[in-house]
Amino acid sequence: MDLEDFDYHLPPELIAQKGAEPRDASRLMVVHRQSGRLEHRIFRDLPQYLRPGDVLVLNESKVIPARIFAKNPHGTPIEVLLVREKPDHPGYWEALLRPARRVKLGQTLSFSSGLTATLEGLEPDGSRVLRFHGNLWEHLEQIGQTPLPPYIQAPVEPERYQTVYARTPGSVAAPTAGLHFTPRLLEQVRNMGVEIHCITLHVGPGTFKPVRGPLEQHTLHQEPYEVPPETAQAISQAKTEGRRVVAVGTTVVRTLETAWDGKELRAGRGETQLFIRPGFRYQVVDALITNFHLPRSTLLMLVSAFMGHALMKQAYQVAVEEGYRFYSLGDAMLIL
Questions:
Q1: Close Cβ partners of 265 (under 8 Å, ≥ 6 residues apart)
Q2: Same topology for domains 3-63+153-335 and 67-143, yes or no?
Q3: Where are the domains of the chain?
Q4: What single-letter DSSP state applies at residue 175?
Q5: Is residue 325 within 8 Å of residue 27, measured between CB atoms?
Q6: CB 256 within 8 A of CB 214
Q7: Out of 21, 201, 214, 220, which could bridge 251 as a Cys pair, Cβ 3.0 to 4.6 Å?
Q8: Which uninterrupted H or E stretch holds 235?
């Protein structure tokens, strides 16, 4: 398939600039893969489509205030977007600098809180490696800002860009499918006999990297994940017993499909750069809750692989015609 196969026209006014209030008041398009039927509901109607014994899987990663500002030795302002801490190298962070050319190897950046960082390396993808002097985590709340996507122009309260179950800091973007849940809705789902389990995948900016060339040449950045033993056991048992695994978001999909060894889900930590596109054979996920994604994005390709390309194109056309709200703070889709 070509990149143009994942394009569609979206009127700018359909790009959501704020989330629904309450969260579960957002709209929900329900897509039935076998019949192709589309339903238009409200997100709080979700329990009507779940069954006792289903395993609902959440990503409990928490967005960090990863957009920080520094000055180089000459006093030039430098914007720093933290990507991720280097595995097994505490204090060393991959980051995107702007303007990157104004920071040379070995130079030290200074932050308003007194924190400093030295540029130690250049990565093949254009990111930089910074070594922070001092505990970055102790300074982030003071010097950092939530890195909202560029298509959100309105101010957004930081807590509104977090899921209500976010617990483990590390993401530079929210796992947005989970933004629709309220504590009350989660309790309702649990009380009806649905098992709720969590994984952690820290979302990096590479998730939103534009696809510019042939699909087979596109690669995603590595993103760290962790599957707790109880989650691995619950999903492995559900698959053995024929019960459904319902993924909340593309990050959960990529984690579960990466950690599956063909027979069971592996617990533990790892990294994934799994690029799911049409032709991919899903082995774990049976249903998916997701938002409406950007044209030509890897997220849209993942959804297309799950529901079928023709049905995806139809659903997105209907979503535009019906005035659904798109992207991170927009409405949701449940694919069954």
A1: 227, 231, 232, 235, 236, 239, 256, 259, 284
A2: no
A3: 3-63+153-335, 67-143
A4: -
A5: yes
A6: no
A7: 201
A8: helix 229-241
Strand partners, 89: none
* CA of residue 198 relative to chain centroid, distance: 14
202 in Cβ contact with 66 (< 8 Å): no
Q: What are the 10-residue block averages of pLDDT along the chain, 336 residues in total?
A: 93 97 98 98 98 98 97 97 90 96 97 97 92 95 92 94 97 96 98 98 80 81 94 98 98 98 97 94 98 95 98 98 98 98
| CA 289/CA 264 separation, integer angstroms | 22
Q: In this structure, are residues 115 and 134 in contact, taking their beta carbons and an 8 Å threshold?
A: yes
Q: Which CATH superfamily is domain 3-63+153-335 in?
A: QueA-like (3.40.1780.10)
Distances (CA, A) of 126 to 58, 98, 138, 164, 239: 31, 11, 27, 34, 41
Q: Quote the CATH superfamily of domain 67-143.
A: QueA-like (2.40.10.240)
Structure tokens at 95: 């980051």
Q: Which two tokens stand for residue 304?
A: 């297309």
SS3 content of the chain, % helix, strand, coil (to 5): 30, 30, 40
Q: Assess whether the previous peptide bond of 99 is cis (omega < 30° from 0).
A: yes
Which strand (E) or helix (H) includes residue 140?
A: helix 136-143
**Count of CB atoms within 10 A of residue 79's CB?**
15
Strands laid side by side in the 55-59 sheet: 38-42, 27-31, 332-335, 287-291, 245-248, 55-59, 195-201, 223-227, 268-272
